[in-house]
Specification:
Structural class of chain A: alpha/beta
Helix content of chain A: 25-40%
Largest interface: A-B, 36 and 27 residues
Strand content of chain A: 15-25%
Strand order of the largest sheet of chain A: 1-10-12-11-13-16-14-15
Number of helices of chain A: 13
Number of strands of chain A: 19
Radius of gyration of chain A: 26 Å
Oligomer: homotrimer
Chain lengths: ~425, ~425, ~425
């Protein structure tokens, strides 16, 4: 939550100094490699736009009273507005104003990344109160060659195969969307770096939405086959249950793991199908890329009243919910990491567990959980069923199965399929 | 409805002048190619039977009072009766009578195509009133060498691949079964001929039930691979919701299209599995033929009280329902025709729609239908998903998707898979 | 039931004279081939244990009053106890006692096959009444080299391909578990031997649980590919509905047949998934064996209060229920035997059934069952659908279909796929 609070005041966009300052603060939590991609660079069908920076902006009446002031909220400026400095009549001004009649006290968040426009976002109540004939408006901003900024943190694993975690950094003062995602990614990354070396390499990417993942994908095109699992994360601080949006493939291993984790935690958690709108999962799921990347959020994009408005503020996000979100991300990553394929080394009938001290000595009428886990593992581990497959079929917790598999591995009753294959 | 009314009085059977007169009247609506297949011709396991024509038929008491008269209703004669001219006692006569005790005022419709029998169908009330010791009976009919008659109307398409529409013409004065099917086929055919040239060639066949489709199939055996979709239609004027009976394959494209059309029109419409009885779909679905031909009706065969009786008359069928049936047939044909496979030409991430003027300029919190259709098409069009696949997955109306696909085709963001393959 | 009563008093275990005496009595019902496998023989990961025989056993107080006496119930001795002859204090004795507090009048059944222990099983009420300081205990038993005994009865069929029926013989005086299974197997075997020669060879195996099937499998490893279907049977005399436990494969033909038979008999019958505990199906379903062997019981193992206690006695099992179980076993075996693949010899459209005298002569509005069976068979018999497939799809009883298929075979409209392939 302290990270969310530190990042809240900064005016971010898809490029600019606000993003750089954000990444600098995040780098206090975990080491980041920052990449700057010059304006004009080609990325598939897209071109990196000019960089946008805004210094000040206001609407004044002719007596110089400020009606709308960027210093009060960076949402007031239509994001990526071109500069303006002019006096105009009310109806002309009104064509450049955005408000939400249903929530007259909230400032909406609107953008104009790829069109040369300017505008102001303001509470509908303020807009309705504009009664003068003429107003003065000023947006002191640049759209000029610069660069697009993204950052990566790599947690090295035993294998070069990677799990990708992507979160978007382009939204200004909106807490749930997406300071929550940035904070959860930072906290998970810090825990991964201080923990045991994972099997998979884990790559966390902090970049702007849409153009950020497009630029990242175009610059890493040759290495995409390394990515075996992926999660786009965001919107992880509000009070909704968790939502897993399936990857385009729908039944990728990451989908099954996420559904397993969410399903065991609460029946309120939701699984939804892939759709080509939302966050960066839509780029990872484009037909030419088609990586197994799903999305973890609490509310969905557009799924809560405060979405894309000034009401998505520090009150909407709590420390507890952020911490729980970190747990869920970690659990998904850990199960992906531990979800191996084993092969029973004594596959003809059951091995004699008692002889190996793995079994209770007096036959009775009930079977303990650990023995049940052993029997299921020995029965199902033919190289075609993963630990998760066994966990789901046997309805035994993944952790118990993983621990029991380690015992059977020690007893040489199981072998790791991948190890066995390379022997 | 005027066509139904014109055809109602005619005595039809699987062969004979009634069928010829029927096809002559239909040819006032759309051009027909009439084929005559001589009696004795072999058709797979069957032989075309002798032609049947009946001139007059009656039962009289010995005073010459007519009890049953063919001129009142052609249903009175057991269809395909051999001639008879005789006086007999009541109990002998009764062995040749057919009636429906549950509906004592209705004349049943019965046939004896392949057995040398004669008989009369009559209201049960009349049968019960026969009290004399002896009666005179006369059926002035021929079963003699002639031919079996069927007719075709071909709507030429861009491709030689065909959609087949078959409707049975063999029933005498029964309106729903199947003057309704004849009328709907004729109206649909007329509309197809006056409309834009379709992609597929569409072939409408008007032939007798069972022996007609068997004869047609045996004479067209070398060309059957042209048929990519097919519908047997009939029973389309009564007040039941629509019923789609799946092709033998069960998941053919025509099944999916028909289920889509019926499902979106009304929840009352029904989808039923294939079964080897009913109308000509049973021949198209025999194991050696196995064409993707399903069946569209309202009530099923045997599925309404008036079925195969004199109560299946002009009161059972209405203009409105016939018109709605034409709409449904046309909609199925049109979706089959438009259901193409496209390939996204910018498959790496999303293309920049804004740059091409295809996207609204200011980012907000809701997504318009047309943009949603674009995103779904760009995401799913990898050559493996048809427009219908996308419509079902995205829950967007097929028409909107088809129109949007045309826009994306113009913008060169989509290409037609079949065109692309031949380039 | 008379067989159950004859076998009830005998003290059985996984080896020993009790098993031999049991098989001798069973051989009065059907001829058995008895196999003796010497102690120390290797069977996959297992070794045949020393043979166990017990002559007498008791707990006495120091005045010589017998508190617990093997002659009252052979359950009193912990099965496979090593000998003991000693005086000891009450608390030491208590470590060797087994009772069921929830059912204070029942003697539990417990075993120690693979650990060198001794013990007594007794009613909890008796255990609680032990108040003396010291007791004398005696178990006059041997665990010494001998052999493990199993028996087979083979019902020869036209083919060398086999259906395996396995039932466990190792439990002492417990009626449902598993004198019921032994009796049902014996009665079914006797009926099969006196009936028509089946298509498949049917092999009934009477052997101890776990070690018995392991030994049998290890000694028949080269012939296992003969086994095309299998049932482990047991617990068939209690008043529960039937339970089919699916084979490891889950969708084997025997699973489908058993589910069909149980489903048509009662909605109370249950189908459960495979799990690696229970009876000998767990060995047949080990990953290296993986035979299509499911399990038929009434209650499941552990699924009734009297399970593994002295209350599983002659009162729990009735003649009627045993007889019904024999019927179910026979029905499963018969459908497996009759479930063939036929091929329509006139596959192009329907054959003309009327011409062949297979069809009623006057067309009406309803279709008789036998004709419906003919049409379904002619439509579905393309060599890819078995009789059971047709029975399930058409919802026509298997028996009616099998009889109708025989008619069509006579009329040369169907051919047996296997016969046709070899022609």
């Amino acid at each position: 939550m302290s990270l969310v609070e530190a990042l809240y005041p900064i005016c971010r966009s898809i490029t600019g100094d606000g993003v750089r300052k954000t990444l600098e603060i995040v780098s206090g939590w975990l080491p980041l490699d920052v990449t700057e991609v010059p304006s004009g660079s080609q990325a598939f069908d897209w071109t990196v736009p000019d960089e946008w920076n805004v210094r000040d902006a206001w609407i004044e009446d002719l007596e110089g009273r400020r009606i709308v002031d960027f210093r009060d909220s960076n949402l007031h400026v239509l994001n990526y507005s071109i500069p303006v400095d002019s006096e105009m009549d009310r109806s002309t001004l009104d064509e450049h104003l955005y408000s939400i009649p249903e929530h007259p006290d909230w400032i909406p968040y609107r953008t104009t990344y790829y069109a040369e426009q300017w505008g102001f976002c303001l509470p509908h109540r303020v807009r309705e109160s504009l009664e003068d004939a003429r107003y003065r408006v000023r947006i002191d901003a640049d759209r000029s060659p610069g660069s697009l900024t993204y950052a990566e943190c790599v947690v090295p694993g035993e294998s070069e195969r990677e799990i990708l975690v992507y979160t978007h950094t382009c939204h200004p003062s909106l807490c749930n969307d997406n300071l929550s995602g940035i904070a959860v990614a930072a906290a998970a990354g810090a825990r991964l770096l201080s923990g045991e070396k994972p099997r998979y390499t884990i790559r966390l990417v902090f970049g702007p939405g849409t153009i950020g993942s497009i630029v990242w994908l175009s610059r890493n095109r040759e290495q995409l086959q390394r990515i075996v699992h992926g999660l786009a994360i965001g919107l992880l601080g509000d009070n909704a249950p968790f939502t897993w949006k399936r990857s385009r493939r729908g039944t990728a291993e990451v989908d099954r793991v996420a559904e397993y984790v969410l399903g065991r935690r609460s029946n309120d958690n939701r699984i939804i199908g892939f759709s080509p709108y939302g966050y960066d999962e839509r780029q990872f799921g484009s037909p030419g890329i088609d990586l197994p990347v799903g999305r973890l959020t609490r509310s969905e994009n557009g799924g809560y009243p405060e979405y894309h408005s000034s009401a998505d503020n520090l009150d909407l996000v709590t420390e507890d919910r952020l911490a729980e979100s970190v747990e869920v991300v970690m659990e998904i990553l850990q199960i992906l990491d531990k979800n191996r394929y084993f092969v029973n080394q004594e596959p003809f009938c059951e091995p004699q567990l008692g002889q190996r001290g793995l079994y209770r000595k007096t036959g009775g009428s009930e079977i303990p959980d650990r023995e049940s886990a052993m029997l299921w593992l020995l029965n199902q581990c033919d190289g075609r069923h993963s630990l998760l497959d066994v966990a789901e079929r046997a309805d035994i917790a993944f952790d118990i199965l993983a621990a029991t598999a380690a015992e059977l591995l020690d007893a040489r009753l199981l072998a790791d399929r991948s190890t066995q294959e390379t022997e």
